[in-house]
Amino acid sequence: MGEALTKSAQWTAASSGTGTLEITPLNEAILKEIIMFVESFIYKHPKEAKYVFVEPLEWNTSLDLSAFGSGYVVSETTAKSEEVDKNGQPLLFLSVPQIKIRSFWQLSHFLFMAKDVKLTEAQACIEANRDPVAKILGSEYNTMKEDATALNILDKITKDDDPEIETKIKIAMLLKQLDLHLLNHSLKHISLEIRLNPVPVKKDIELLQRFSGKGEQTVLESIEYTSDYEFSNGCRAPPWRQIRGEMCYVVVKPHDVETLCITCSAEGVFLNGGKTDDEGDIDYERKGEIYKDLVTFLTEKSAKFSENMSKHAIDFKEQQKETDQLGEAAKEEAGKLQKAISGSDKKTLEKNQINFVKNPMAKRLEPSLNWKVTVDYKDRKSSVKDSQEEKRGAKTESRRSSVPAGRAQLLRKSVERIEEIVSDSSSESEEDEETPDHRQEANADLPSEYWQIQKLVKYLKGGNQTATVIALCSMRDFNLAQETCQLAIRDVGGLEVLINLLDTDEVKCKIGSLKIMKEISHNPQIRRNIVDLGGLPIMVNILDSPHKSLKCLAAETIANVAKFRRARQVVRKHGGITRLVALLDCAQNSAEPAQSSLYEARDVEVARCGALALWSCSKSYANKEAIRKAGGIPLLARLLKTSHENMLIPVVGTLQECASEESYRAAIKAERIIENLVKNLSSENEQLQEHCAMAIYQCAEDEETRDLVRLHGGLKPLASLLNNTDNKERLAAVTGAVWKCSISKENVTKFREYKAIETLVGLLTDQPEEVLVNVVGALGECCQEYKNRVIVRRCGGIQPLVNLLVGINQALLVNVTKAVGACAVDPESMAIIDRLDGVRLLWSLLKNPHPDVKASAAWALCPCIENAKDAGEMVRSFVGGLELVVNLLKSDNKEVLASVCAAITNIAKDKENLAVITDHGVVPLLSKLANTNNDQLRRHLAEAISRCCMWGRNRVAFGENKAVAPLVRYLKSNDTNVHRATAQALYQLSEDADNCIIMHENGAVKLLLAMVGSPDQELQEAAAGCISNIRRLALATEKARYT
């Protein structure tokens, strides 16, 4: 921990040598990780938590004495723990404002008591104890020293005669692990930061100045530097501030807010303290959040700026001229730097685009791109669609981490995407900008290969057959994976020639052409050009060729090209799917027996290439149906039995894509494919393991499939793969398969035997969201059983689950609320959830805009209210909470309504809360829902009505709001749970005479009589009680009539 605080944390410079932690996102992230470590310490390491520090951790606290409750002796100015060391000294002692803590147990409890100020307390503790390890274990373990390596520390401990040697070793190892974790976490945090440099900042300011001035249509009134002097490095900040990464300071006068004094630094843009009144100096201290650039900052601060920015359509060509003039010198520098980088990073923008200078060491988004409107946008619509599609396809193939969704809104609004949304089932995210159509500039410094390839293309155009073959062979000697070579072929018209060669009768020319196109079609622009030039239909026809080499090459090229929707459409419309499926059965036409011929090298290669092309094509729904109708599933099932890994990957990949459709899942069961998927989970190939796990994830929606996975021994390899966390794509697939398999109780029992639940708890931190969604989903299913809830609690799983309630990912929130709700069934776990403020977080999710999140949160609140110690007071403590719940009864979503009714049933158990929700109009809202045919809603609505009848004149109000007659109809349902809840509601309502009359008129007595003989005791009693009330009313009426 000391090493991370020394190397990663950002400290202020202080003349005394005792600086303080700066208020930066990195420091905040480090402090949060330390807090999480300390808070979970008492659950994960209860023995070590009792260890008494060699020296206490001391600092000045802002925590009030009133925060200390049971377990502490509190006086007017001091507080001390009842827990003491062997000498009788308290392990926590507070003498306002100084506090001393001597164990992790007390430190953890102190942070729990600190609540909202725990971050401030952690910062104060770290600042006052620069080397906490030395105070915890002793001065000989001072991590500030040069020899404080892990081995040296352990060596010193082993030579020590301390009786607590084992505890010290464990704590030393845990602190070292925390240190490494903090260093790695810091590196990740720093790598994600956007770093600015003076060139683009200056460009942004000058462009803003150009569009500022008086008048309503300008973006700003004015924007000026605070200093006119510019240093040679482009900065205007004083040298002692440049050390901190600050570049310049600007004073901005927006139209609608007061003047802003802004700091532009390498970390981003933020508001400073402004100019002081005395000497006009700047108060450099940051006063708010850091934004990625000036435009984003001003958009957030000024509504007028945002509005006018959206109105301005800056002429594209004028911007190009101005930016080119500004970036002339910087382009030369960038050119020198690019020579040191790999050739693949050299990319030239289209002639009609602005050549923005990108510093290769400091990646950032250019804000001025948001100001431009592309004049030829309509002409490029299809190009934009295709580029986005193929990027998504490329990501699916390479399985790289996805770009955050929702960043392409500007393009999506203008481009017609209905067909794409319907036909594409790929889950990969799209990138937000179009891949520029790269054209080599005439005056660009091009390598010699570019010109040599262009000469070879000329030979292809004008040479005879022999010259053509030689030119093709010579062209293959170049590095065709290099972008310069690929674009050289295209720029001189080589693609047209290569496609024309596919129409000849010369097999050698076709083979040479396909080999080249197979290599260069990895380039997204080349793919589109091939489709535009009509290359795909020709390749589809080649699939009928008797030459296996031609078939293989054509299929592989199709696999590369069919990465975007339009290409997949072309393949299907020209009969490509049927031909590709036929390649899977390549042994059929062989004279040798089918089984032996299948495993011959050439036959295997043909089938592999066919599967590869089908994998690319299977990302659209229409193609999936075409593969199924062409008889692809039995052939894929047969190929799945092969031992060739290079064959298995595309086969399983295709099945994985297709398994999202119910018809495929049924066929997969029928063809006994699950057994082979389970078998290949034990393969050493990570990619094959990933696709097999993903296929199981897709198929395990079905109960029979989950049973098959267990019967074929698939749960154990899945559990073991959870321990391999390096490959995040595979981990996401494996955790997804575990989640879906956990829906069956028998599988959960097996996972408990294989210690998978403990492993899942360990995956609740430091994992990407796609992994967390599945992990939490699996824990939610596992925690339906008491034994598993105990395991989760003992492993410290409650805290990370509660921490995840503050996220924004919809799928993650749905799963984590279910998991927290399952844990809340256990009173001990509920106590932890309550202490961590989990109930308040769940309640706040009722405001979430997504119905699924609302419903899941409401379901989770039910066990929380039921098992909380003082549930009534807890519910009332949430300001506006009861009104929020009642208002959710106006929702149109049946799941939300059912879950809210269930929550109201539990809330209404407290008389005061029942009175409050009655005042908020719960009775008429519940009554409006009575006319429903949804049995789940009927059950919980009846239970809620039953509970609400127990206050004031609510029984009468339900009758007046016409809720009684629809309830009688519920007795005709086939669900016993609905019968029980309805009978209980009718029993409560029958305490009112008018309600009894309505029940009798609607035939309730006959239906209730049949339920008196039910084996369900609660249903018996409620039905009998209701009939009794109705009968008493009838007798009283009859008696009154005769008397």
Report what the structure shows.
The protein is mostly helical and about 1050 residues long. The chain has 59 helices and eleven strands. The protein is about 60% helix and about 5% strand. A five-stranded antiparallel β-sheet has the order 1-5-4-3-2. A hairpin with a 6-residue loop joins strand 7 (about 245-255) and strand 8. The protein is globular, with a radius of gyration of 35 Å. The chain starts with a helix and ends with a helix. One of its GO terms (biological process) is heart development. This is Outer dynein arm docking complex subunit 2.
Please give the structural blueprint.
Layout: H1 2-7, H2 25-44, H3 46-49, E1 52-60, E2 72-74, E3 78-81, E4 92-95, E5 98-103, H4 104-114, H5 118-128, H6 132-137, H7 150-159, H8 165-192, H9 198-210, E6 222-225, H10 239-242, E7 246-253, E8 260-265, E9 268-271, E10 274-275, E11 282-283, H11 294-301, H12 303-311, H13 316-326, H14 328-339, H15 381-398, H16 409-414, H17 418-423, H18 448-462, H19 465-476, H20 483-491, H21 494-501, H22 507-520, H23 524-532, H24 535-542, H25 548-561, H26 565-573, H27 576-583, H28 594-598, H29 601-617, H30 621-629, H31 632-639, H32 645-658, H33 662-670, H34 673-680, H35 686-699, H36 703-711, H37 715-721, H38 728-741, H39 745-753, H40 756-762, H41 769-782, H42 786-794, H43 798-803, H44 810-823, H45 827-835, H46 838-844, H47 851-867, H48 871-876, H49 881-887, H50 894-907, H51 911-919, H52 922-928, H53 935-948, H54 954-960, H55 964-970, H56 976-989, H57 993-1001, H58 1004-1011, H59 1017-1042
Antiparallel strand pairs: 1-5, 2-3, 3-4, 4-5, 6-7, 7-8, 8-9, 10-11
